[in-house]
Design a protein that fits this description.
The structure is a single chain. The model has no long low-confidence stretch (mean pLDDT 92). The chain is of the alpha/beta class. It has 13 helices and 12 strands. Helix 6 crosses helix 11 (303-314) and helix 9 (267-274) packs across helix 12 (317-331). Strands 9-8-7-10-11-12 form a 6-stranded parallel sheet, sandwiched between helices. Strands 3-4-5-6 form a 4-stranded parallel sheet. Strand 7, helix 6 (189-201) and strand 8 form a beta-alpha-beta unit. 39% of the residues lie in helices and 15% in strands.
Amino acid sequence: ELIAHLEKIDAENDYVVFLRGSNFDEYVPKNPRFTKVLAEFPWYTWREQVLYPLWLRKFNVDLMHFPHFNVPFFYRRRFAVTVHDLILLSHPTTRATTLGPLLFWIKFRLYLLVIRRAIAGAGAIITVSHYTKKEIIERFPFAKQKDIVVTYEACASSLRERTGENDLRSDIAKPFALYVGNAYPHKNLERLLAAFAKFRNEGRDGWKLVLVGAEDYFYGRLKREARKKGLDTNVTFFGHATDRELSALYGAASFYAFPSLCEGFGLPPLEAMCHGLPVVSSKSCCLPEILGDAARYFDPEDVSAMANAFAAVADDAALRTELASKGRLHAATFDWTACARA
């Protein structure tokens, strides 16, 4: 989205866009000032840290934008970095990795080293919420001297186009609550399962929960938890969804559930609002900043409070209508062109 909107507004600067092979063909430049280059340096590896900065020298760019914290430690030219969140610092846990405790500790220390260097060396720091800006300054006080710019994200253009319920899979039955995202520990999905079980047990037997996210170790662990709670037939693990399938799910669900303990921005609930889907969200971290008064909030560490919030929205059609209306208006205030200009 950032590149697509820069292409529309910038007729002055030349851009080189470095891409991995996995998505190289997906991007086709529409502005002659934009060129794409294959850069097959796997993320979070020694090749990215050591070989990538040496390889970049031949392009002699005036300014490099690294859109994530993993700036090569030895990159010495001018750069800006986007820091989306500091979740690895605020929620360090061995449950967030498949590594053993010793390797996890080593990787965590390397992460600290890389992100500290990225923040210290950047000519400017871009972040996606005032909450994350404040957290960067609190954890790295020297960053106060830096130019830290907050650029809100927005709904993807492809997700603003609503699709029909014909695009829903046959195993998705109404009414259902929806969650979209990964299953890392900070997403708090084990409590979501517990809250959904409580919500169903209070006279809402027909309700389902649909979880959308690519199959991995963490979703496998969550599936085992769902079986343990006897929710096998009531929770659908959808797996990866295309934009078309995602639009259909947003359009057909009764409400969107977002139980995160921590986020840097929280894009999926904003996407839900674009589709007029009522949002029931955690009140942690940046979420009240991003979602404003267009969501129903709960304490993410209180399973009963979460279940009660689900019940309040599920049982009250007028409240759902109100949240849907507020959500559409609120989501429309976020704009990728404004982000690109910033």
